[in-house]
Amino acid sequence: MQSLLNKKIVLGISGGIAAYKTPELARQLMQEGASVQVVMTEAATQFVTPVTMQALTGNPVYTSQWDNSVANNMAHIELSRKADAILIAPASADLMAKLSLGLADDLLSTLCLARDCPLLLAPAMNKQMWEHAATQRSVQRLHDDSVAVLGPASGFQACGEVGIGRMLEPSEIAEQTIAFFQKKILRGKKVLITAGPTFEAIDPVRGITNHSSGKMGFAIARAALEAGAQVQLIAGPCDLPTPLEATGKITRTNVTSAKEMHTATLAATDCDIFFAVAAVADWSVAKPAKEKIKRQGKEAPNLEFIANPDILLDVAKTVKTKGGKPYPYCVGFAAESTNLEAHAQEKRKRKGIPMVVGNIGPDTFGSDLNQLLVIDENGSKKIAKAEKLELARQLIQLVAKKI
Q1: Which of 217, 288, 327, 359 could lock 201 by a disulfide, CB 3.0 to 4.6 Å apart?
Q2: Considering only CA atoms, which of 142, 151, 155, 157 is closest in space to residue 245?
Q3: pLDDT tens readout for residues 241-293
């Protein structure tokens, strides 16, 4: 899946050591299907060469507003008119100040002023420069002018200091660029998602869990963020990175057991949509051993089980009505070994929720691919096999129409 297919992006580079990351960013944008046209300031050429960027993108690199290789000698007009977006990474404090004031004294700043497409900036600078009142005034003016500011992050800086001002990693910038182009059909909405497995202790080293990687739940979290939502993600034990964390629009709560997930979820039900994606253990051990249970020959230990709280059922009991529509709109997930549609429809009615999504096929756990069967009061709809992020985007579209 190429999320930037047929998009034309002008990739601007201003002077800063973070420019060493920009070749990798260009590569990732192109892998997502974008065509990349590089424009560099003179200072940027001190950190990465135009030859490098031309070799990577397959396009000539522009560095001068006086470049006569453009037919009408107006590169600042021609380049911006052909672009779906201008993305500048790194964006220096100097360039951001110029853009915030409408100053244009080189090719990159001039084409930004002459553009008729969106502008995205990935700042990179020393922490004192970022925190300086003048820079913060620039940022505010850029926000007011509908310029998208991606980051910066906090971390170790080239100057040897640690703090905010570090440019986002190429993968983060690419993800936020992809998100920028998605339709904001959930703008202003709050979305709650449970994802991953739960783990129920038998003793300090053993436990009962479910066969879940968390990938589908995390994909839905990313798709909801792309659609403009504020996301609360409650994750069972899994090693997946938080989707689009640098946007500041996602809060992640890590839990282990079903009871912990139940508590965290019930505390966050003030939302518009609830996706119960997590594979929650139905039972837990009544009295987990405080010490490791030692093997006694061929004898197996006697374990007494108790039912775990039903998270989806309890959230469904909190549903209220706003504008004649229920909130949160509850979406359950069902993984079945047989008779998926019948079992999923029965689950939907038993829980009293409007929608259940069934995972199709035994090979979906841990895979990047999946198939979905969406079941509501009108019947069922199959979503063909695709990457989980693409399925998540389609599911978000279906739910957005419902609410």
Answers
A1: 288
A2: 151
A3: 999 999 999 999 999 999 999 999 999 999 999 999 999 999 999 999 999 98
DSSP string for residues in 66-78? T-TTSTTS-HHHH
Which of 332, 327, 330, 328 is closest to 344 using CA atoms?
332
177 plus 209 within the same structural domain: no
CA distances from 98 to 19, 45, 93, 95, 143 (A): 19, 19, 9, 5, 14
Average pLDDT over residues 344-371: 81
Residues 141 and 208 grouped into a single domain? no
C-alpha dist (Å) from residue 326 to 67, 330, 356: 59, 9, 15
- Catalytic one among 112, 117, 159, 271? 159
112 is catalytic: no
pLDDT digits (tens, 9 = 90+) for 290-321: 999 888 877 888 889 999 999 999 999 998 88
* Residue 220 to residue 334: CA distance in whole angstroms: 15
How many separate domains does the chain show?
A: 2
Omega into 241 within 30° of 0, i.e. cis?
no
Which CATH number characterizes residue 23's domain? 3.40.50.1950
Average pLDDT, the chain: 92
Query: Could you tell me the sign of the dihedral formed by the alpha carbons of 164, 165, 166, 169, in that order?
Result: positive
∠115-119-121 over CA atoms, to 5°?
A: 140
3-state secondary structure of 60: coil
Q: Would residue 153 count as lying in a domain?
A: yes
What is the pLDDT confidence band of residue 51, given thresholds at 50, 70 and 90?
very high
